[in-house]
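FORM 12-B: Structure-to-Sequence Request
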C-alpha cells in the first residue's frame, strides 16, 4: 500500500501581503518627513559656517583698512563683485553683507562701512527651511523665522549659536 502524502501549498495570502504593504507605507509616511527635517537641519551647518567665515574675514579686513566692506570680493569671495551677495559652497544659502542701520557705508565700492551684518537666506532645495540667520559686526547673532514670503521675526541669541535645537 502506497500512501501519498499531499502537502498543503504554503505561501502568503493576498490579505497578508496587503497588511504588510500597509504597514510599510505607514512607516514610510512617518519616517520620510523626519528624514527631510534632519537633512534640512544638517544643511544649516553650512549657514553657520558661512556666517562665521565672513565675520572673521570682515574683522581681518577691518584690521587692514579700519573699515568694513559690503563687497565680498574684498574678502576673498569670487563671483560676488559689487553685489555683496554670494551663494554658499553647496548652494543651499545666499550670503549677503548688509549695512547695519546704526552704521554708515560711504563712498563707492568697496563701501567703507562702520557697521554691518551678514545674513544667510535659504535658497534652492533648502528654500522651504523657515530660518534666516544673521551675525552683526558687534557679535550679536540672530535667528529669524519666516512669517511670510518677505517678512521674518528675529530673536537675538546669547552670543553662542542657540539655534541648534531648531
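FORM 12-B RESPONSE
SEQUENCE OUT:
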Amino acid at each position: 500500500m502506497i500512501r501519498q502524502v499531499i502537502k498543503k501549498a504554503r505561501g502568503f495570502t493576498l490579505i497578508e501581503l496587503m497588511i504588510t504593504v500597509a504597514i510599510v507605507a505607514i512607516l514610510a509616511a512617518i519616517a520620510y518627513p523626519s528624514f527631510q527635517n534632519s537633512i534640512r537641519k544638517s544643511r544649516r551647518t553650512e549657514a553657520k559656517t558661512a556666517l562665521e567665515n565672513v565675520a572673521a574675514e570682515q574683522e581681518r579686513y577691518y584690521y587692514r583698512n579700519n573699515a568694513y566692506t559690503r563687497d565680498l570680493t574684498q574678502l576673498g569671495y569670487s563671483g560676488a563683485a559689487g553685489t555683496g551677495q554670494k551663494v554658499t559652497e553647496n548652494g543651499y544659502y545666499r550670503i549677503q553683507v548688509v549695512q547695519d542701520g546704526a552704521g554708515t557705508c560711504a563712498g563707492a565700492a568697496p563701501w567703507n562701512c562702520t557697521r554691518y551684518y551678514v545674513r544667510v537666506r535659504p535658497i534652492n532645495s533648502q528654500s522651504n527651511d523657515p530660518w534666516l540667520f544673521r551675525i552683526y559686526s558687534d557679535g550679536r547673532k540672530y535667528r529669524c523665522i519666516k512669517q511670510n514670503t518677505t517678512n521674518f521675526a528675529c530673536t537675538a541669541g546669547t552670543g553662542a549659536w542657540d539655534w541648534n535645537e531648531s
